[in-house]
Fold:
Amino acid sequence: MTRWWLAGGRVIDPASGVDAPGDLFLADGVVVSAPADRTGFVRVDCTDCWVMPGFVDLHADLADPVVDGRAARRGGFTTVVQTATPSLDRPLAVRDALARFAGVGPRVRLTPAATIGLAGTALSDLGAFADLGVTAVSCGRAVLADATVLRGLFEYASHFDLPIWLRGAESAFENGFVKEGPLSARYGLPGVPAASEAIGVGRIAAIARWTGARVHLTHIWTTEGLDAVRAAQGVGVRLTASTTAAHLALDERRLASSGYAGWNRVVPPLGDEDDRVALAAALGSALAGVASDHRPLPAVAQEVELALAEPGSVGFTTALPLVLSRVREPSKVARALAVGPASVLGDACHLRPGAPADVAVVDPNAEISVIHDLGSRSNTPLRGETWKGTVRWSFCAGESLADAPRPR
Amino acid sequence: MSQSLVGLRDVSADRIVSLLDRASAYRGRIAAGEARLELLRGRAVALMFFEASTRTRFSFEMAAHRLGADVLSFSAASSSTTKGETLLDTTRLLAAVGADAVVIRHAAVGVPHRLSELLPIPVLNAGDGINEHPTQALLDLLTLRDHLGSLAGRTVAIVGDVRHSRVARSNVFGLRALGARVLVAGPGTLCPAGLEHLGAEPRRSLDDVLDEADAVMMLRIQRERLGGAILPSAEEYRRYWGLDERRAARLRPGAVVMHPAPMNRGVEIADEVADGPSSVIFAQMENGVYVRMAALAASVGVDR
Structure:
């Protein structure tokens, strides 16, 4: 196994209170103290770069474990929570998926479908999932509307100590493309009222408070939703929350100004500038972090009428530049992309000797052309654009992308 | 130069006025006895209607015929995606077979806009979801101009289901571009917050706009909005938002009453008003053909 000497960067390790120029050494899959003899260490020039803990993604879809696993590593992600898909709802499917995701590059935390087919009506075999080593279950992108099922899920999952990943929304208000307001009025697009998220988060929080379940809310996008998250956390509900890079940083007018192009469709829709400011301000408090929300799709799924377009975009390599466009302070970037999300998973996230050698080397000032950086995945609203900030190197258990073992 | 017409949202007053002038000129020539203007002889216009339409399709078809164009007509209730191809694949066919312009109506917002960026031929929007219906607004503007002269400083009230109306949205943009004041009135479920960002002035009730308006545009109430969470009943709507004789009597002298049709007689508009002296509803329908002739000819770059 290669030993690495990450030399001359600015080491950002918020959990240890470190933000200083320095070197970092990786050997045998862990961080090690500076050795007296550096023979055998491969020197990596980290000048002008931030050396920080590898990113932890709270919501992504590695549709192809190998291709998307590589994309995750290119984006600096060393741990990825694989979201639930409808077919990931049976123990056999979960066992098979666990095998496919092993050794693909990033560490993958699989969150199987909490309900059969993600339909929100019947519980999956959560006990069998727990026996397979799963540590959380998810409702994916679906909205679980039925309070009876929510209650049952929360009570049943608590028995196996499984936290539940959910999106907070009122399903009756889901049929929109933008936030309801000036934009929906002007562009003739059905809107989603801001109350939707507040209602959804409130319902989940109330049932979680009553049942004692642990929940993680993904895709927080409105000021009203954030208020509901804070209210729940304030009364001791075991609730964490995250937003996505797109919701944190992208202008909601893109959808209409692009001629209603399907690849600009995001669910939930993008909020307005006030929402984005509120989301950025809530990072590190109400919001544990920013997820990539990576979702590769074939062109045919989006080159259709907007109403029929599948929402979503690839997001691993654009997550960092999107976060950097809103958060410039390096320790805050590390908290948003690594330390905060790791705390949701209960993982330690620091760079002290003995820690797993999961590291991202970030060049915050490099300009990247998004199209060039996508590889074979191209469904993103940012195609053709230039953004600032890229991951130069990423190490997972001390393996760099180039020398990572091939998946079995 | 060819140019699409996907909406009036970002269209200049100059372009609108030039389309209205052209429509008036065509109307004059036809009134003078020319049955066909032959301006688009040898050209082909494709009509693609992905949503049921009778009057708009007839109107466009007649407009194309009057210009001497060949018409390719296509109606489908369903989307192309049910056949596994993209919207672009389907419409590329049109350019491939030699159409010079495409007129499209679609239930999904934004389809004409998307196509106008992808196709090498001009695209005319014949209505996309709740977004825009620019030729309807143009025919309304022409009718208003015929009756009121210049629209600058005039006040036009739009009453009813503004939220779901592509007619209302296109009219607000067109009227504002020409300097008119626009009042909107309707129940809260049909007049959402945010209309003031379009330059329209929201009013609480129909009774609040009658004294000020030079024209009142009554919108159709869709039957499916009744009896649910949006409107209680037709009777209730008629009582508070219907234009009856008593209310019409309060209009200023010379004010006109409009409706994009089809009308729900006895709901949003009473028979006596629809057929009364201030109604210009049938003039609107006739102007539709001239405006669509103008839009078609201008879109393919015919100068006259």
Q: What stands out?
A: The mean pLDDT of chain A is 94.
